[in-house]
Write a structure and sequence with these properties.
The structure holds two protein chains of two kinds. By secondary structure, chain A is an alpha/beta fold. Chain A is built from six helices and 15 strands. In chain A, strand 9 and strand 10 form a beta hairpin. Classes of the chains: A alpha/beta, B alpha/beta. The structure holds flavin-adenine dinucleotide (FAD).
């Protein structure tokens, strides 16, 4: 089984990110960039499938600028066999990315595309579903558990009400949620060692046309500072005074 | 022609659509996948499904059905994102996730980076939108003509088992009062007694942080935040919650936030309207006994 794992480079998910004063973008000066945490979980799951003998080849793919090489090198260190960097400096959206990924999936013929349910920068939660639609493959989103079946997968999905178990035939697109696994820690030497693994640079196969354009970025109004109370009786009085009970 | 189709999974979904439909200001119809309604727009298409099929089995026929509409909108939820993005993918249409404001029928506001930044985005029709109802002033949907509609799912992913809606506490995304807890709640039984007790006394819902869900203290459908539910109650009581940006992303629109935390430097105090530096195991039972209107 071949697994394709799309990887997104995002600003450190634990950093406090602000809009630039000009409103033209995010102020990421001095901030680290990481593999989108959801994608890292997808990659970890793919590596475990390979370790269990369920998968034979893991290909990580990113669409973006040359700086994304950093995240692909780390993906190789985590356990991808091969990485593809589809180089572009264009602005992207889930429509452009899913169209490009679909073209690569047609060429690479994976049995499974395993990816994060959303990117922590844009929080859009679209690319996996759009990709599955373009390929006309079944989808199982928000996975918290994946089991290999003879020619498909049984996936436990997180839902608004709790959980749901679905079965999908392969090839399929599965998007993953945080509780699927705890990704392994990779130290710097591991990343350096992975330098011998193949990282292919490629040009886009599609026009990367976006459907949604971001006009400006702003910081939301801050909540006003509140009060501190010193006893439960004061707390009860303060809550009662707000008239929300 | 500019026209909106609201797609609702059930009546409770539909009941949250009025504010958005009014703010968008276009003529509208509704498609109700399960349940009945006589309000929803000029036409109310009723599919009358008893169980909601998986997204990949109905997206194809919905893509055909929606093609005359310039706007197709859903209340933001996990299931609506699952379905809306699949249909948008088939049609190669624009999609706005989690709209919180409308500047014009082609310009919307949406949060990103866990709500730390608000983006203004432009999209040409047809445009799919999932929106957060609490960001739109409540309004009634107009009454209309009910049109029965058949939906025959195509082959695709199959549901083998699903959790059912649990009766009892109000739904998190609609609750007026939420008592929410984090990692220090220890275990499921403690969480249920200490938080659940106060929530029930106030007629509210219970919520949890990801840390609480990950450690098995709370079930995943109670997670509030960037990757969980977005809530906007009148009163949000955060007990033993540090106030990570990911958690804050889900509670910013609460009217009053109360923080109970042992650590006076916890970031939750930066956003709380009322804070107390104390042990939650001390404070919560006392609140249950002392808050006006709380049933003990
Ligand atoms: C991609 C991503 C998405 C995420 N999405 C979410 C999300 O949707 N929702 C979410 O909640 N988190 C999310 N997280 C996790 C988030 O970063 C935090 O780890 C989490 O919110 C912390 O939960 P907590 O406040 O329960 O735990 P902690 O941060 O450990 O805080 C516990 C707090 O309890 C206080 N405390 C301890 N004992 C007591 C006591 N007896 N009485 C009173 N106070 C006490 C401590 O002082 C501390 O402040 C996400 C993380 C990532 C990377």
């Amino acid at each position: 089984m071949r697994i394709l794992i799309p990887i997104k480079r995002v600003v450190d998910p634990y950093a406090k990110v602000r809009a630039l004063p000009s409103g033209e973008g995010l102020d990421t000066a001095g901030l680290k960039f990481e593999i989108n945490p959801f994608d890292e979980i997808a990659l970890e799951e793919a590596v475990r499938m390979k370790e269990r003998g369920e998968a034979t080849e893991l290909i990580a793919i990113t669409i973006g600028g040359s700086e994304c090489e950093e995240q692909l090198r780390k993906s190789l260190a985590i356990g991808a066999d091969k990485a593809i960097l589809v180089e572009t400096t264009s602005a992207l959206d889930p429509s452009a990315v899913s169209t490009e990924l679909a073209a690569w999936a047609k060429e690479l013929q994976p049995d499974l595309i395993l990816m994060g349910k959303q990117g922590t920068e844009n929080d859009e939660n679209q690319t996996g579903q759009r990709l599955a639609a373009k390929l006309d493959w079944p989808q199982a989103t928000f996975a918290s558990k994946i089991e290999k079946l003879a020619s498909g997968f049984q996936v436990t999905r997180e839902t608004d009400l709790g959980e749901e178990v679905v079965e999908v035939a392969q090839p399929a697109v599965i998007t993953v949620d945080l509780r699927l696994n705890e990704p392994r820690y990779i130290a710097l030497p591991g990343i350096i060692k992975a330098r011998s693994k193949p990282l292919e640079r490629a040009t886009p196969k599609t026009a990367l046309t976006v459907k949604v354009k971001t006009r400006s970025y702003a910081n939301p109004p801050a909540r006003g500072a509140g009060i501190r109370v010193n006893s439960v009786d004061e707390l009860v009085a303060a809550i009662a005074a707000k008239g929300v009970l | 022609m500019s026209r909106l189709l609201l797609i609702a999974f059930d009546e409770s979904d539909l009941n949250s659509c009025g504010g958005f439909a009014t703010a968008l200001g276009l003529p509208y119809d509704a498609l109700l996948l399960s349940g009945n309604s006589t309000v929803g727009g000029e036409k109310i298409f009723q599919a009358g499904l008893t169980a909601i099929p998986t997204a990949d089995t109905v997206a194809g026929l919905l893509a055909v059905f929606v093609h005359t509409y310039s706007h197709v909108a859903f209340v933001s939820s996990m299931r609506s994102k699952d379905l809306a993005a699949r249909i948008a993918g088939i049609l190669d249409a624009a999609m706005i996730t989690d709209a919180i404001g409308i500047e014009s029928p082609t310009t919307f506001l949406r949060p990103m980076v866990a709500g730390a930044v608000i983006a203004t985005v432009d999209a040409e029709p047809p445009v799919f939108i999932t929106f957060r109802p609490s960001n739109f002033a409540p309004a009634e949907l107009t009454a209309g003509t009910v049109v029965p509609m058949g939906i025959e799912p195509a082959p695709g992913s199959k549901v083998v088992k699903a959790s059912a809606k649990t009766a009892g506490r109000p739904d998190l995304s609609q609750a007026k009062i939420i008592v929410s807890g984090g990692k220090p709640l220890k275990d499921a039984a403690t969480f249920e007694t200490v938080l659940g007790g106060l929530a029930d006394a106030l007629g509210g819902a219970v919520g949890a942080t990801r840390a609480a869900v990950d450690t098995g203290i709370a079930p995943n459908e109670l997670q509030v935040g960037q990757t969980g539910k977005i809530v906007a109650p009148n009163l949000y009581i955060a007990a033993g919650i540090s106030g990570s940006t990911q958690h804050m992303a889900g509670i910013k629109d609460s009217k009053v936030i109360v923080a109970i935390n042992k650590d006076g430097d916890a970031p939750i105090f930066e956003v709380a309207d009322i804070g107390i530096v104390a042990d939650l195991f001390d404070v919560l039972p006392q609140l249950q006994a002392k808050l006006p209107g709380a049933r003990s």
